[in-house]
Specification:
single chain, five-stranded mixed sheet, about 30% helix, disordered C terminus
Length: about 170
């Protein structure tokens, strides 16, 4: 059982100095009396950290100077984490691809394009989800929803397609 506000606050503290040095303000508004979530705190920290770093990179490249992180309880069985920035935003085309593995808007050598795909997979494994809203010149808002402790969670559906056979080179000498 994990207190989500502690995970969020610790993650922000990890990046706060670097963001400050870059001239980016980060603020937090954490809801009182949130129920805990059944989760791996390190994986949730990885998700929030990825969102902070992505916002930082976008703002350093194309403007913007503020990130806001909020937690809330929109319903009795759902917790929400919101990370929004006043950066350059994204076009509809880019926004539609941000969770695709290996898709990146960063320059070669700056990123792999796996961060948001991994974040989405982590949240799915925790019975949650992530979504994004953005428009050019209007910043970006990521919303994470997680089931509160005691909420009914549906397991992810198993893939109907069989796993591919390993390449022939891996079949020898093992």
């Amino acid at each position: 059982m994990v207190p989500i506000n502690e995970v969020v606050a610790e993650t922000v503290r990890l990046r706060e100095a670097a963001l400050g040095q870059a001239g980016i303000r980060v603020s937090m508004t954490l809801a009182d009396d949130l129920p805990e979530v059944f989760a791996d705190p390190f994986q949730l920290q990885q998700v929030v950290l990825n969102l902070l770093i992505n916002a930082e990179h976008a703002m350093l490249r194309d403007g913007g100077r503020a990130i806001e992180v909020r937690t809330s309880l929109p319903s009795t069985d759902t917790l929400r984490i919101v990370v929004c920035d006043d950066g350059p935003g994204m076009s509809e085309d880019v926004l539609g691809r941000i969770f695709d593995p290996f898709f990146t808007t960063k320059d070669v050598g700056e990123g792999t394009g796996l961060g948001l795909a991994v974040a989405q997979a982590i949240l799915s494994e925790h019975g949650g989800r992530i979504s994004a809203e953005s428009a050019p010149g209007s910043g970006t808002t990521f919303s994470i929803e997680l089931p509160a402790a005691g909420a009914t969670v549906q397991a992810p559906r198993a893939s109907a397609s069989p796993a591919p056979d390993p390449p022939e080179a891996f079949g020898h000498g093992l």
